[in-house]
Structures are given as C-alpha cells and as structure tokens.
Design brief:
By secondary structure, this protein is α+β, with helices and mostly antiparallel strands. The protein has 10 helices and 36 strands.
C-alpha cells in the first residue's frame, strides 16, 4: 500500500510539473505556457521569450528578400507588459520604389479564465505607422488585454528590395529566451560575409545545398544554401556601468554582401579590399576631396601666432586656433555635408569639417598629420576583417611632432592638446594615408587620469568644531568632467558640493584653472563643522569627506562582456586631523591592502598617529583600461573592498 501511495504521489507531482513547463517547441500556446508564472533560471525576468523563429528567403517571382517572423512571449510581471508593445523598423531610401513593406500582421493575447484558455486578437485599426527618420518607417502596435501571466503571440512578413542587406537575426535580448531559430536561404550568386557576434553558442548550425532555387527570365538559375541556426536557454543581456554599446556583445548573426554575380555573368564586388576602399575615400567629396583642399587654409592664421620656438608649440597654437574659433554644430556626419570652405565662412560645422581643417593647417605649416576614421563607443566596434565604411561615424587627426604622435579632436573646448573625447576611446581607428595605404592604429590615452584629495582638519574641543581645508587636483578625463561642471555653472558647482557634504559649511572656494582646455583642474574649499557627533566623551567621525565610490557598480553574478573604463586611472585620498592635547584615537579601521590579478591594479589603506595628528592615506589604482570577463569576479570583490573602506571606516576619538 505504501509503495502504491508513493507511486501515486510521484505521478501527481510529475503531472503537475509537466503542466507547468513552458512549451518551447512550438509557436502554439499551450496551457502549460499559461500555468507557469516563474522562470527558474532568472527570477528577476519581467518577461520570457518562449519561442521565436525567423525565416528569410528570396522570392522567385518578386525577386525580393522575404522574412517571416513568429514570436511567443510570456508576461511574468506587471513591468513585463512593456514587451506587449511591438515596434518594427522598415528600411527605406529616397526612391519610393526602394522601401520595405510589412504584411500579414497577426497578434493575440492569451489568458486563463476559470481554467480555460481565452484569447483576444489585435484589431487592425490598432496598428500604427509613422516616420521614424528619413531612413526608417516605424510600425507599432500594442497587444490587448495584457495582465500578469498572459502569453502573447505575434507574426508578420517583411518584403525587402535591399538584397545587399540580408536581414540579420538577434538571438539575445534584455529578457531571456528559451528557443530562438533563424532559417536562411541564400542564392549562390550572392556571396555574404557572415558574422556571428556574442558569447552564446549555437545549439544547431546546419547547411545544405538546394538546386535551382532561383531563376531569371534569361533562363539563368542559381542554387541556394539553406541554413538553420538555433540557440537555446539564452540569458538576458543586462547592461552595467563601464561598457561600450551593448550591440558589441548581443548574440546575433549579421550579413555583409561581398560579391554579387548577375545572371548575365557580370560580377559586382561589393565588399572591397582596403586598397579599393582607400581609392574610394580619396575620391569621396566629403573625405578625400576635402582633405586635398589645403589651399583653403593658406593665410588663415596670423603669422605671429605661428612664430613659436619649437614645432610642438606651433602645433599647439594651430590646435588652439581651430578649437577656439570654430564651433561644432553637434552633427556626427563624416560622409555627408562636409565643407571646409563653408566652415571657414560660417565658423561652424560638423566633426569632419573641423578636424579636416585642423589637418590641413598642420600640413600647410609643415607638420606631419593624417586623418583617422573611427567609431564612437555608442556606435560600436568596427569590422576589421574587411572594410565596412559605414561602420565609421567619427574623424580625428593624428599629428607627429619631434617623433611623438598625438591624437587630436578640435571640436571640444575642454580638451587639452593630445586628448580625445571619452566617446572616442573605442580601441582602434583607421589611419588614412592615400599615398602608402591606410592602416589600423590603437586608440588609447597616454598616462593616468587621476584624482587627489588632501584634507587637513583641526579639532577645537572648546568650541566643539572641526575646521580646515580640502585641496583637490584632477587630471586627464577626471579633469575634463570637473571642468565641464564648473564652467557650466560656477554657483551651482559650489551648491552641489555643499549638498554632498551636509555636515560642513563652505566658507571659501578657490579654483586654479584659467581656461577650459587646461590639463588640470585644481580647487580648494575651506570647511567648518559646528555640529560634531558627540556621545558622552567620544567623537564619531567619517574620515571620507569625499568618497570616490559610494556603491559597488558591479552587481552581476556573471558578466560576459568586458569592463571598459576607457582609460587607466588612480584615486588618492590623504586625510589629516590635528587632535590637539585633549583627544586621542580609540578606534580606527585596520590597514588594508589588496591587488587585482595579472597586475591589474591595487588598493592601499594606511593609518598613522604622529604628534597628536591622525593621518589616513588611501590609494586606488586601475592599471588597465579594459578588464576581460575572466577578471570580473576579482574586480567585483576589489570594488566591494573599496566601497566598504569608504563607507564603514568610522573614527572614534575619546578625551584623554
């Protein structure tokens, strides 16, 4: 009897579990999809893609690229309702014939009511179309009757004339996915570079040849390669501080047309070598033609501005001239609407115009200079295997003076000679040399960006006050950020400092930084604390008046993409308090040392009492710009120790 009861209990449990498993094998909604309201692999997920598939192929009759998409999503929380809002971008260009079209939109919301499956269908009148920008049209709809526990399905077909741009497929998103499949059929006369991005692995990756899949009116035919790609149990991509755009790391498959062979036998080489790309760039009206117009800058500068004793000083003068006299209009265009002539006339222009002007002024005055194409951090990494000019969205200048090279951008008034905007710190760029051929160069700032705070306080036991000064020095990228805050609104700058340090009154503030482009930013504050934390005969003090890190920015269990600070940096904090004759230290945090693996950085925390003065020293160094995912656990622990030091290091003083 006991064995029978155990068997019955097992069958009941098995039955319940079977009923509460998501069905990731089909687009159809099962009762199990609706009954299951948690996802064990990710308890924080607001929604879950149970099943999705895409199928792209060339239409034999219309000779267009067709993509059919189906998606089934579980809404796990109230916040997950955002995933019931569907947005689809359709590509277009200036020609009315060259537009993508969408059809066969079907969408439904499924719920359980009294144990029965009910569904609500999307009304066609709730499908909206709007202009997204000049290159895209937006199709948008929201599924009806959404509630926690709902399952939504939607499907549609896209017809595209842009066969050079085979539709990519993104396996990973900001919510987890159980199953994602993409099928493609590519005729043999289209040869694509196929790129798999991200760290997730394909569970299925198969291809087969299909004969005579495509035919032309002249009787020509082409075979097709039919491929199937599947990923399973794909984790959500969670963005965290200190990273470039997530598009660098999302697991996806992309296509870039390399060669097209027409049915008439003609071959069009779409993706070219860098030698071919250099030739195109040299003849491009917005790039090469502008670079070659060096005569425009003749006599643009006053000769007295160039009568410097050294080539480096001359280079600095040219850089400062462009930086101070021409205003960036906010546009990142580098292949369109670039005119150095208009820039000189109007005193304002886009990125390329300003930096090409800078490049021309260097060359005109005998200083070696070359433009550099790059992609900003938010734009993503550039493909290096083959030239994709559209990957680039920025142009800077490399100048060589006395055997040393400097990377320059004259569009930002806060940059010192040799500094680039933070957005440009994206690892590499393409140095344009129309005589010898372009080449890749590494882009990284030289030296450390640092912050130093020196705090000098004195305790007055009679007045029960604490008074003194804070001297701060910022260099590199830390100085740029500080300068922008200060010069934008100086009164607000001081107010913000007072708001952060509520325990102190600010009686004076001085700044040693005359111009926006200075290499350093130095400042001093005079402080007074008239409300000490006195308990009986003891004083409790937080020695970290200014904190570098108040919380740990690294919170993920696992990070599959690098920690990219962009630059090496150091933080230094020196604290001194004169205790006088009446107080002594009863309690203070212990000395602390910690190192990152592979000489990646270190932290040193020391305390000392000498001649009635308590001294505390903290030094933090990040010796790398980029830390690979393997280093993340150590970096997370390292930062946790730093945060604890700055938030939990309480000083206890007692009367002698």
């Amino acid at each position: 009897m006991k064995n029978c009861l155990k068997l019955l209990l097992f069958l009941i449990v098995f039955s319940v579990e079977a009923q509460t498993d998501f069905d990731s094998t089909s687009f159809n909604v099962s009762k199990a999809d609706l009954l299951t309201n948690t996802y064990a692999r990710d308890s924080t997920a607001s929604a879950l893609v149970i099943y999705e598939e895409g199928n792209s192929f060339f239409d034999r009759l219309k000779f267009k690229l067709i993509t059919e998409i189906q998606k089934k999503v579980k809404i796990l929380t109230k916040e997950g309702a955002d995933h019931a809002i569907v947005e689809i971008l359709l590509r277009n260009n200036d020609s009315k014939r060259s537009i993508e079209k969408i059809s066969a939109i079907k969408a439904s919301t499924y719920n359980l009511k009294n144990g029965q499956i009910t569904f609500t269908t999307l009304d066609k009148n709730d499908i909206h179309k709007e202009v997204y920008n000049k290159n895209f049209t937006l199709i948008k709809f929201t599924l009806p009757n959404i509630q926690k526990g709902s399952v939504i399905t939607y499907s549609y077909t896209i017809e595209s004339p842009f066969m050079y741009k085979y539709r990519s497929w993104t396996f990973q998103d900001d919510i987890p996915k159980l199953y994602s499949e993409y099928r493609t059929s590519i005729p043999g006369n289209y040869d694509y570079n196929i790129k798999l991005v991200g760290t997730s692995r394909l569970a299925v990756n198969t291809s087969k040849l299909v004969r005579n899949c495509l035919s032309a009116r002249n009787g020509g035919t082409a075979d097709c390669t039919d491929s199937r790609y599947v990923m399973k149990d794909i984790p959500a991509f969670v963005s965290e501080d200190y990273m470039t755009t997530k598009n660098n790391y999302l697991s996806r498959i992309e296509y870039e047309l390399k060669i097209y062979q027409g049915f008439d036998g003609l071959i069009d080489k779409i993706t070219k070598t860098w030698k071919d790309a250099d030739k195109e760039l040299r003849n491009d009206p917005a790039v090469g033609k502008q670079i070659q117009k060096t005569s425009l800058v003749k006599d643009l500068m006053n000769p007295s501005e160039l009568n410097n004793s050294s080539p480096l000083e001359k280079a600095r003068s040219i850089y400062n001239f462009v930086q101070n006299n021409y205003i960036w209009n906010g546009e990142h265009k580098i292949f369109k609407d670039v005119s150095v002539k208009n820039l000189i006339k109007n005193k304002t222009g886009n990125i390329s115009a300003i930096n090409i002007l800078l490049n021309s002024l260097f060359i005109e005055n005998g200083i070696a200079a070359k433009p550099v194409l790059l992609s900003t951090r938010n734009n993503g990494f550039v493909t290096k295997i083959y030239p994709v000019i559209s990957d680039f969205n920025y142009l800077i200048v490399q100048v060589t003076v006395d055997g040393k090279t400097y990377l320059l951008d004259a569009t930002d008034k806060y940059l010192n000679f040799g500094e680039l905007p933070y957005k440009c710190l994206n690892q590499s760029g393409r140095l344009l040399d129309f005589k010898n051929g372009s080449q890749w160069i590494t882009i990284h700032p030289k030296g450390l960006s640092s912050i130093l705070h020196k705090v000098d306080l004195k305790l007055d036991p009679d007045e029960e006050t604490l008074a003194g000064t804070v001297h701060s020095r910022y260099t590199g990228y830390h100085s740029i950020a500080q300068k922008k805050k200060y010069f934008l609104d100086q009164s607000k700058y001081k107010e913000d400092f007072e708001a952060i340090n509520e325990d102190f009154e600010i009686s004076a503030h001085t700044v040693d930084c005359e111009s926006k482009s200075e290499a350093h930013f130095n400042e001093s504050f005079e402080l007074l604390n008239a409300d000490l934390n006195l308990v009986a005969d003891k004083i409790y003090l937080d020695p970290f008046i200014i904190k570098f890190f108040k919380k740990n920015p690294f919170q993920l269990q696992e990070r599959t993409y690098p920690v990219d600070f962009g630059y090496k940096q150091s933080f230094n904090y020196a604290f001194q308090i004169d205790l006088g004759e009446h107080y002594e230290v009863e309690e203070i945090a212990k000395d602390f040392n910690m190192r990152l693996p592979e000489n990646g950085g270190d932290v040193v925390f020391n305390t000392k009492v000498l001649n009635n003065k308590l001294m505390i020293f903290l030094k933090i160094r990040f010796k790398k710009e980029i830390y690979i995912p393997h280093n993340y656990p150590s970096l997370k622990q390292f930062m946790s120790g730093i945060v604890d030091l700055q938030t939990k290091s309480l000083i206890v003083l007692k009367r002698k």
